[in-house]
């Protein structure tokens, strides 16, 4: 076996191990889902003895809102008094979690601060789960706000705890970015961390599955503008002091939309610090969206990639959402995907689907195989595709609501054709 094959096998094994650990955490985590015999029970969560509160983070169904829609106003949460050094030992991680606990016991929603206890939170069901934990739809009894709660189990694993800290660090410092999921507060117990966040409608991956076809170019144009501005914020914002942040897990399941037409990025558990604009650590992420330079770096012992790795992930995501099919869908293993990424030409948008030249050019730029020639986000903002959709009026909210209405009924299980989907968005 060649050295490249050995590296690919190691990456595949790491991904399998992460999935195995995620399933184990889910099996160990507390059951927050509603009991079938009694709908919407009060959550039963073990909190620390200081009687803290609760938190949330995720996406959910936009049906039957329990409170009036609020304006797109950024929360004014205080910047946490902690930062993440390059290396954290278990004792240091535990100490920083203790610091976070001092900020818990309340939720700050729409600029108002509310004392919160676990009995104030009513579960309305699990929304989803991933490598970083489970997400639940929750109703806050004191205000009837419906929010989302991400539950991440604390373990003795240093890498897992670093994920928790990284996710918290990014969302708490990003309250002034309209394209990052908004955080209402965090609860840390002896066994779990709960992050309270705004509830979105659904993710792009689930939207694609609902409509069983491609997402219109105009919607993807607005989505691309949002993601570019998000990653530019993460890599350049003064909120992150000397070092920017690289997401490292840009993919359709981490792109959220809602009935208000908002588009936001979530899940920063494996994001990393940029030192001199470079990422110096490896984190597996999702093989399907991983850039070539992350799969096969010149020196595997010293990873040295930058924000352009996220640009590649954006390109793969756009091809998937624009065509309705994952570009490596015929691969049966992560090893096959990684091999194709390295050995084959990058995916392109099919000419037969009628995409605009600007969109085709933008995706081609994102999927430039040589990362040294691939543009960074600030350069992509000059692309005609971005400039067009920065100023274009696109009814994302209307399209989203139409799709959700037409696909929520079991009788609407038939696939939409490419023409039908675009006719839903012809204005």
TrEMBL record:
GO cellular component: cytoplasm; nucleus
Basic and acidic residues composition-biased segments: 7-28
Compartments reported by the entry: Cytoplasm; Nucleus
Needed cofactors: Mg(2+)
EC number: 2.7.12.2
Main subcellular location of this protein, as a coarse class: cytoplasm
Catalytic reaction annotation: L-tyrosyl-[protein] + ATP = O-phospho-L-tyrosyl-[protein] + ADP + H(+); L-seryl-[protein] + ATP = O-phospho-L-seryl-[protein] + ADP + H(+); L-threonyl-[protein] + ATP = O-phospho-L-threonyl-[protein] + ADP + H(+)
Entry-linked InterPro entries: Dual_spec_MAPK_kinase, Kinase-like_dom_sf, Prot_kinase_dom, Ser/Thr_kinase_AS
EC primary class: transferase
Xref: CDD domains: PKc_MKK7
Protein kinase domain residues: 121-386
Pfam families assigned to the protein according to its UniProt record, in alphabetical order: Pkinase
Family under the similarity heading: Belongs to the protein kinase superfamily. STE Ser/Thr protein kinase family. MAP kinase kinase subfamily.
Name by which UniProt lists this protein: Dual specificity mitogen-activated protein kinase kinase 7
């Amino acid at each position: 076996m060649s050295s490249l094959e050995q590296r690919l096998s190691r990456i595949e094994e790491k991904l399998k191990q992460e999935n195995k650990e995620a399933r184990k955490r889910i099996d160990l985590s507390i059951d927050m889902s509603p009991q079938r015999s009694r709908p919407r029970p009060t959550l039963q969560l073990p909190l620390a003895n200081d009687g803290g509160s609760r938190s949330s983070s995720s996406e959910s169904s936009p049906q039957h809102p329990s409170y009036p829609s609020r304006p797109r106003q950024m929360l004014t949460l205080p910047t946490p008094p902690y930062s993440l050094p390059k290396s954290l030992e278990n004792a240091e991680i535990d100490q920083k979690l203790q610091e976070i606990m001092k900020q818990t016991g309340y939720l700050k929603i729409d600029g108002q601060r509310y004392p919160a206890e676990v009995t104030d939170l009513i579960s309305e069901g699990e929304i989803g789960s991933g490598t970083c934990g489970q997400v639940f739809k929750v109703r806050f009894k004191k205000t009837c706000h419906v929010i989302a709660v991400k539950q991440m189990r604390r373990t003795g694993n240093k890498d897992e705890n670093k994920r928790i800290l990284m996710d918290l660090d990014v969302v708490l410092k990003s309250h002034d970015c309209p394209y990052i999921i908004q955080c209402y507060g965090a609860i840390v117990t002896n066994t779990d961390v709960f992050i309270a966040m705004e509830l979105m409608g659904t993710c792009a991956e689930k939207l694609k599955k609902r409509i069983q076809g491609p997402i219109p170019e105009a919607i993807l144009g607005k989505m691309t503008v949002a993601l570019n501005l998000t990653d530019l914020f993460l890599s350049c914002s003064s909120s992150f002091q000397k070092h920017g942040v690289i997401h490292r897990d840009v993919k359709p399941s981490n792109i959220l939309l809602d009935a208000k037409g908002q588009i936001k990025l979530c899940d920063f558990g494996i994001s990393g610090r940029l030192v001199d604009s470079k990422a110096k650590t490896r984190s597996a992420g999702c093989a399907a969206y991983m850039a070539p330079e992350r799969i096969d770096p010149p020196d595997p012992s010293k990873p040295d990639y930058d924000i352009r790795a996220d640009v590649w992930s954006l390109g793969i995501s756009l091809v998937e959402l624009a065509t309705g099919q994952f570009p490596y869908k015929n691969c049966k293993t992560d090893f096959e995907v990684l091999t194709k990424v390295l050995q084959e030409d990058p995916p392109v948008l099919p000419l037969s689907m009628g995409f605009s030249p600007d969109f085709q050019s933008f995706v081609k730029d994102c999927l430039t195989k040589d990362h040294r020639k691939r543009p960074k986000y600030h350069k992509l903002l000059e692309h005609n595709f971005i400039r067009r959709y920065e100023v274009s009026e696109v009814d994302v909210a209307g399209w989203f609501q139409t799709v959700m209405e037409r696909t929520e009924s079991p009788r609407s299980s038939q696939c939409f054709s490419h023409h039908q989907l675009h006719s839903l968005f012809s204005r």
